[in-house]
Amino acid sequence: MKRLMLGLALTCAAGWLFKSHCTPGGWSMSEQYSTGCYSDAVPFWDGRGVSAGALPYFDARMEYPVLTGGLIWVEGSITRLLFGARANAAHFLFVVTLVNALIAALLLFWFRREGMDGRRLWAWALAPPLFLYVGHNWDLLAIGFAVGAMLLARRKAMPEAAAVAGLGLAAKLYPVLMLPLIGLGALFRSNTGWARRLRDAVLVTIAAVGAWAAVNLPVIAGAFDNWTEFYLFSQQRSGTAASIWEIMGVQGWWATTIPERNLYAALAFLIGAAAIIGFGWQRHRDRLWILFTPLLAWFMLTNKVYSPQFDLWLYPMLLMTAPRLRAVWLFVAAGIAAYFAEFWWFASTEQAWPYVVVPGHIAIAAGVRAVAMIWLIVEMVRLPPPAWIVLKPSAEAAR
Question: Cβ neighbours of residue 259 under 8 Å, at least 6 residues apart?
Answer without folding.
Answer: none
